[in-house]
Amino acid sequence: MPRAAALLVFACLTAFAEDKVRLGLFTAMPVKWDLEANWRAFEQTFLRHAAEKPDVVVTPECFLDGYAASAKDWTPEKFAAIAQDEATSPYIAKVRELAEKHKIAILFGYTEKRDGKYYNASLLIDKSGRPAGRYYKTHLQAHDLRFSPGADLPVFDTPWGKTGVLICADRRWPETARVLKLRGARLTLVPSYGMWHIDNEWWMRTRSYENENFLAFAHPNVAFIADPKGQIVAKLQSNMPGMLVADIDLSEATTRKHIEDRRPELYKDIALPQ
Question: How far apart are alpha carbons 247 and 135 in whole angstroms?
Answer without folding.
Answer: 24
